[in-house]
Structures are given as C-alpha cells and as structure tokens.
Design goal:
Two copies of one chain form a homodimer.
Chain A (H helix, E strand, L loop, with lengths): L2 H12 L5 H12 L4 H8 L3 H22 L1 H16 L5 H14 L1
C-alpha cells in the first residue's frame, strides 16, 4: 500500500488516540499536505520538531494496528463487499461471501 | 445490549490494549465466567482487588470505544451483511446495501 494511503487509514481509525496537538499537526502534514517547513513556520516550532512529531505519531498509530489489526480487518471486509457488489446476479456466490464476512466479524 | 455481550465485544476489539495481567484476569471473569472469589483464591489476591481490576478494565475498554466507535461501526456492518445474506434473490437491494456498507467503510 502507498505510504500516504496507509497513514491516512491508520489516522482514520486511531487518530482519536493521539493528543489534540499531535492530531492537529499530523492532519496538516499528512491530510492537508503541508510541508514540514510550512507547519514549522505556522506553529512557531522547529522543522525538526515537526519531523519528530510525525515520526512519533506514525509509530503510535502503527503500534495500535500491530495490536488490534482493525485496519487490516476492515480492508478485507471492504474487498469482500466490493466482490458482492459485482456479483449481484449470483445468489450462491453472495451467500458464500456474506458468510465469509460474518465469520470475520 | 446485554452487559456480558458488550463486555465480550469490547474485549474482542480492544483487549490487546490491556496489560497481560489485566487481560488474563478479565478473561477469567468475563469470558470464563469465574466468580471474583474463585479468581481471588486462584491468584492469591483479594476479592476487592479482582473487583477493582474488572471495573478499571471496563472503563479502559469503554473509553477506547467512546473515542474510536469501532465496535459500533462493525456491528452496523454486520447487520447489513446479514440483510444481504437474506436478500440474495434481490439484486437491486443487494446493490443498495453494499453501497451503504462501502460508504460506511
């Protein structure tokens, strides 16, 4: 998976577990695509400070996923629902995929 | 939702965020249905200690759900997949429900 997509997904799932300060800066860099330098000026902190905060947040979010695996679970379910969406004329296949999802949930 | 079902679900999702000690005692009481007294004897701690630990774990798990809402999200998806499972002969309905799930995810 592309790094930015992965970061966005992890943030989507676990972002609320960051502090307000971390979340706000992480959003500026990862979601709003500001550069470290822009954020540094805007917040009156060092560029290195922004860099360290992003690195730390990436680790926090990745650690939650390593423990909970909820993003992975969600991606798997999404894939299967997309398969259902493409198989609406095949009742047997839909039964099979639905059962797979329900076992997963 | 029945309290024991809710506790089991929350533990399923967020249990890995408890310490090994908390998780092990929580499992004995909530999943294996041992009494506080039984666990107290088995672990050589006070009955009150077991009671406090369970109360604390319930709060930790509920706090994670209050922030992340992932159990609620997965329950909603589960409900919709069960609807799909019951509507395999109705392609239009399956399309509609799949789309709803994909929007949710």
């Amino acid at each position: 998976m592309e790094k930015i997509v992965e970061q966005t997904l992890l943030f989507d799932f676990y972002g609320e577990l960051l502090t307000d300060h971390q979340r706000s800066i992480y959003e500026d860099v990862i979601l709003n695509d500001l550069s470290y330098s822009e954020v540094a000026v805007e917040r009156d902190i060092s560029r290195q400070g922004v860099h360290d905060l992003i690195k730390r947040c990436n680790k926090i979010l990745a650690d939650y996923e390593a423990k909970l695996h909820l993003v992975a679970k969600f991606l798997l379910i999404k894939e299967k629902v997309e398969l259902i969406r493409l198989s609406t004329d095949d009742p047997e296949r839909i039964k099979k995929i639905s059962d797979e999802i329900l076992e997963e949930l």
